[in-house]
Structure formats: C-alpha cells, structure tokens
Specification:
It is a single chain. With about 600 residues, this protein is an alpha/beta fold. The chain contains 24 helices and 22 strands. The protein folds into three domains: about 10-135, Response regulator (Rossmann fold, 3-Layer(aba) Sandwich); about 155-325, Alpha-Beta Plaits, CATH 3.30.70.270; about 340-605, TIM Barrel (Alpha-Beta Barrel). The chain is about 45% helix and about 25% strand. Strands 6, 7, 8, 9, 10, 11, 12 and 13 form an eight-stranded mixed β-sheet that branches. Helix 3 links the parallel strand 3 and strand 4 (about 85-90). Helix 23 (about 580-590) packs antiparallel against helix 24. It binds ligand C2E and magnesium ion (MG) (2 copies).
C-alpha cells in the first residue's frame, strides 16, 4: 500500500467504443501500476473528464459517434483545470486524422492492435511530456509540440509534417525508380551508477534531447551525405521529432536501400556516447528501425509504423541495435502480445504447475534431491515450455511473482513430504537474474521459508554464471546473506559462461551443474569430454559438489562415474514429473535394498525418456 505522502499513480482514462479492447488496454495499464478507468461513449467521456480530470486519455480515433478528434477538442474545451495528455489510438485503415488530431492537442499516437510494451512506453512518455509542459515550457503550455525548430539552419519537423513530406516523397521515388527509407530512432536513458532511469528528472532529459540530439543526428546526416552519397545533391534528407524521445529520418531517393543502414550506424555512433544529465553519468540507449518503399509498402503512415516496430524489435536485442523491418516482426509482436497477455493471467487462473526431477548421488544412485521446474498448462496452447515463457516473464517483470510462487509451491511440497514421514531431501529451485537483482530477494526468500516452515538447509537455489557477473562485490554480499540463512547455492548450466577458476573461488557456492550440452556428447565428442572432465576436476579442486544434468544413457553415466562426478540428473532416471509421481522416489528411498532399476521405474513405470 502506498503511504499517504507518496504521490498517487497517474489516472488513465481509456476511451474506446469496443468494450473488449477497452478492457484489455485497461488491464495492461493497471498491471503496469496506473490507476485506470474506462468509458465507452462521448457523453460518458466528457462527464468523466469534467468530474475527475484524468492525467491521460487513451482515445480511439473512431471513438463514439463524433469521432476521436472531435472528442479530443471537446476535452480541451472543458472549462477550468488542466487538460489531460491525449494519446490517440488508430487502425491501419484510418486516414486523414493526424493533422486535425495534432491541432486538437493529441500528444502521441499508437497503432492497433496495440503492442503492450509499446503502450506502457508511450503512455509513460506522454505523461512525462505533459507534466513537463504544464510545469515550465511556455511554448508547450499553448499546446504546441516540438516543431519547426531550426538546427544548424536545417528544419526539424514534427510528426505531422514528417508524415506529409514522407507521403509526398513516395510518388516522386516511384517515378524515378528510387527507394524511400524511413529510420525510426528510439532513445532511452539509463544511469551508469545502476540507479533507475526514473531517477532522472524528465525535464532534464527533455532539455538534453531538445538541445543536443537533433544537432547530433544532423551531424550524422551531414557525414553520411558527404561520405556515402557523393555526386549531385539528391533529395533533401529530412529529420523529424515524432514524439518527445523519438525521431525519424526520411531518405527520399536512395539507389540502394542498404545505404540507410550506413546512416543508421552513424546515428548510433553520435548518440550512444555517455553524457551527463542532471549531474549524473548517463548512457543513452538507442534503437533504430528501418522500413522502405517499395520493399515494405507504399503508404507513409505504414512505413513509419513499420520502422517503429523494427526499432522496438531492435531494442529487444539490447542497446545500440539497428534492424530492418520484416513482415515476421509484426507477427512476432502480435504473438508476443498474445502470450504476454495470457502470461499475466496465468498465475491468477492457476495455470502453472511445478514438476520435480530427481537428482541422484553417485555411485550409490540414491535420490538426494529434486529440482523444481515450472510448467505452464495454457488453456489453448497446451503445455508451454519454460524456454518460451521464462524470457518473456523476465522481460515483463512477471518472473518476480511467478518465481515466488514456484519457491513457495516447491517448499510447501517438500515440507508436506517431510510431514508425511518421508526422509528429508534437498529441493532445488531456479532463480532468475531478475529475481536475484531485486533488492528484497534475501528477505523474500527468507519470508517464504518462514511462512512455509521449511528448513533453509534443505533448500538450494540454482543461479546462472551470467547473473553473477554484474557488480561482483554486491553479488557476493547477497550470496553471503543467503548462505548465512543456511541456504545452499549452485551454479546452473555451468560451462556456458565465464567459467574461470579465479572467478568461481570468489563466490560462496556449494555446487556446479555441468550444462547438458556438454553431457549430451560426452562419449562422442572429445571436446565435450575434455570440457566435462575439466569442470569436474576444477569443481573438486574447489571442494564443490559437481552435478551433471541431461544424463540420458548408461554410457554417459559410466563416463561421469569414472570421473567421480558427485550427482546426476536426467531422462535416464526420470524426466521432471508431477508431485504424485515424484513421491514414488521417496517411497523407494525408504526401502533399504532398492536397486537403480527400482529408481528408474519409480517415476515412469512404463517408459524412460523425456516428458510426454
Ligand atoms: P535448467 O534449470 O537447466 O533445467 C534443466 C532442463 O533440462 C529442464 O528443462 C529439464 O526438463 C531438462 N532435462 C532434464 N533432464 C534432461 C535430459 O536428460 N535430456 C534433456 N534433453 N533435457 C533434460 P525445462 O524444464 O524445459 O526448463 C528449461 C529451463 O527453464 C531451465 O533449465 C531453467 O533455466 C528454466 N526454468 C524452469 N523452471 C524455472 C523456474 O521455476 N524459474 C526459473 N527462473 N527458471 C526456470
Ligand atoms: Mg536448473
Ligand atoms: Mg541447467
């Protein structure tokens, strides 16, 4: 609960005549921490805005009978108070509304179907922009957007003018047999001291973007014109600011569309170096997407949207990326949106399950623990693999509640088995980097253990090498706190990252799990055999428990046994199974003379191998 002196979350009003669209948008924004309400017709919209002025209205261009642009005007004409920021939603077929919408005061635009991450991004930006307008920009207070400014004597156009000029360039290029390329440039900022971007004052970011960025882009354009486009001057390259931190560049008559990437690379070079904003060392993070006529389409609006989709995809690949638009990007963005929506609801709808895979000690082949592995039983898609949804859950932050749920469920299961008289065994739970970097992680884990009444010494957390590499000193502190609570720590998928001995020595860990990619070919690939051997020897020299995962046949097992690998896990014994099946291993354990064959049979009575 926010304390009373904490500012309230911004209020967003979703105005869309289609109640299912309105509901979905409202759901996304509510999950992102906004206060949200919905209206479905014009009178309700105005009544709402008059009674409870929202901070932002998400307004469909085809809203109600009068349409979104008229509604936008009516909101602005309401007496008293400050007008909300307005973000217009539009469909691919909607036309001729941009200019009037801008004149009516719309600040941002978003194409339908709405990409969820873009929605959050644009709403946050429009709010930052609007609050800054209200605070100190006299030009902005009169409702003007960044437009018509001149940089180094060249015009910097706004979104409307950019669209207009881009539209004009297409027939001209068609007549000359040339290409038109549009580059969408998306800027974000992060503090180099690791503090959140939200710590930077929006007004200072805006100062930087307004005063520095257009000049830098222009410099890249000039270099590009001089170096890459020799010969008689071609059509004028146009730079537009299409939103507070988004720019676009129009290359109106290119012979080769690949040249657009050369300009993109130069823009990355001029924008990426660290800068000081608000007294803080800050790294701009730039993503560029490119779409072109005739390859991708012949409508300027569509090309801008495609370039922006490509910039969004480029951002997923990490900072400083550039991508050309491909048709699969829209499909990918749509599929991702669908998956992300259902992932949000999966916890509530109890669609997750935890399966357990036994870990066996060598040479006895006694079960000494289970690894808890999440499964998602999607109502339409069936079982969705964690490899598919964990990365998405990490990106959206959903991994934090999901990860807590797995930890609680696995500990409760292990505690239940103990209560029922089975001998205690270790429960291993995977921890994502996003969870590990939460400041509250140690308290969260301890809290769950206390709540469930599970002894920490029977819990192991599986971490990955890469997540330990950022800020090594604070990572070690965090690991030490977990160790002080009595929890065991292992490094999962070992061998795929920075596996140096000196690095390992610094971390207070108990086990190494050799990545299954080395185990798979341990008997056929001399390289993999050498890697597995060196990991086992290195692990032993550091007094670590070494576990091999992905053991599928007896020859791999024999190899590992000769090297005195301490534990194994894999389909040879059992795939991950539901708790009722996992319980059979505990039953076998309590029978003193059980053989390895009993162990294998315990989990999958009719078959060994992967999951069904
Ligand atoms: P991991 O932690 O390395 O888990 C081992 C993976 O190998 C599991 O895949 C397991 O089913 C599979 N496996 C086990 N034995 C064999 C074998 O003999 N052959 C082959 N080919 N595969 C085997 P799964 O369950 O699909 O999980 C994939 C990854 O997803 C996990 O890799 C882990 O990184 C992640 N994951 C799963 N559950 C969770 C979770 O609750 N939280 C987090 N953060 N990540 C999870
Ligand atoms: Mg694991
Ligand atoms: Mg692994």
């Amino acid at each position: 609960m926010p304390s009373s002196d904490e500012p309230e979350a911004p209020l967003v009003l979703v105005a869309d005549t289609d109640s299912s669209v309105a509901g979905a948008l409202a759901g996304t924004l509510a999950a992102a921490g906004f206060r949200v309400d919905e209206v479905l017709d014009g009178p309700a919209l105005l009544e709402f805005c008059a009674a409870t002025p929202p901070d932002l209205v998400l307004l469909d261009v085809r809203f109600s009978i009068e349409g979104g642009v008229a509604a936008c005007r009516s909101i602005r004409e309401l007496p008293g108070g400050r007008a909300p920021a307005i973000v217009m939603l539009h469909g691919a077929d909607d036309d001729d509304w941009i200019q009037p919408a801008c004149e009516a005061g719309a600040l941002e635009f978003l194409a339908k179907p709405v990409h969820e991450a873009l929605l959050r991004h644009r709403v946050a930006r429009a709010l930052a922009w609007a609050s800054e307008q209200a605070a100190d920009s006299p030009a902005a207070q009169s409702g003007q957007r960044a437009s018509g400014k001149r940089i180094h004597g060249e015009p910097l156009v706004d979104a409307t003018e950019f669209l207009e000029l881009a539209s004009k360039s297409i027939p001209a290029a068609r007549a000359d047999g040339k290409h038109v390329a549009i580059l969408a440039i998306d800027l974000d900022f992060e503090c180099r001291d690791g503090s959140a971007r939200s710590d930077l004052h929006p007004a200072r970011i805006e100062d930087y973007v307004s005063s520095e960025v257009p000049g830098r882009i222009r410099r890249a354009v000039l270099q590009f014109e001089e170096m890459e486009l020799p010969g008689p001057a071609c059509g004028e390259i146009l730079v537009g600011r299409i939103a507070p931190t988004r720019f676009a560049v129009l290359l109106p008559d290119l012979d080769r569309v690949q040249d657009a990437a050369k300009l993109g690379t130069r823009i990355l070079e001029v924008l990426e170096p660290a800068v000081v904003i608000d007294g803080r060392d800050t790294r701009p993070s730039v993503s560029i997407g490119i779409a072109s006529f005739p390859t991708d389409g012949d409508g300027a609006r569509d090309l801008i949207d495609m370039a922006e989709t490509a910039a969004y995809c480029a951002r997923q690949e990490g900072r400083g990326n550039l991508q050309f638009y491909t048709a699969s990007m829209s499909r990918w963005a749509f599929e991702r949106l669908t998956l992300e929506n259902s992932l949000r609801q999966a916890l509530e709808r109890e669609e997750f399950l935890v399966y357990y895979q036994p870990r066996l000690e060598l040479p006895s082949r006694r079960v000494v623990g289970f690894e808890a592995l999440i499964r998602w039983k999607h109502p339409q898609l069936g079982m969705v693999s964690p490899a598919q949804f964990i990365p998405l859950a990490e990106e959206t932050g959903l991994i934090v509640p999901i990860g807590k749920w797995v930890l609680r469920t696995a500990c409760m299961q292990a505690r239940l088995w103990q209560k029922r008289g089975f001998q205690p065994i270790r429960m291993s739970v995977n921890l994502s980097a996003v969870q590990f970097h939460q400041p509250s992680i140690v308290d969260d884990v301890n809290g769950i253990l206390a709540e469930v009444g599970y002894d920490p010494s029977w819990l192991e957390l599986e971490l990955t090498e890469s997540m330990l590499m950022n800020d090594v000193d604070s990572t070690i502190d965090r690991l030490k706190s977990l160790k002080r609570s009595g929890i065991q720590l292992s490094i999962d998928d070992f061998g795929t990252g920075y596996s140096s001995l000196s690095y390992l020595k610094r971390f207070p860990i108990d086990s190494l799990k050799i990545d299954q990619s080395f185990v798979r070919d341990v008997t056929s690939s001399p390289d993999d055999a050498a890697i597995a051997t060196s990991i086992i020897l290195m692990g032993h020299s550091l007094k670590l428990n070494v576990v091999a995962e992905g053991v599928e046949d007896e020859s791999q097992l024999a190899f590992l046994q000769v090297l005195k690998c301490n534990e194994v896990q894999g389909y040879l014994f059992s795939p991950p199974v539901p708790p009722e099946q996992a319980e059979r291993f505990l039953t076998v354990l309590t029978e003193p003379d059980s053989s390895p064959a009993d162990v294998a049979l315990a989990a999958t009575p009719h078959r060994r191998g992967g999951e069904e």
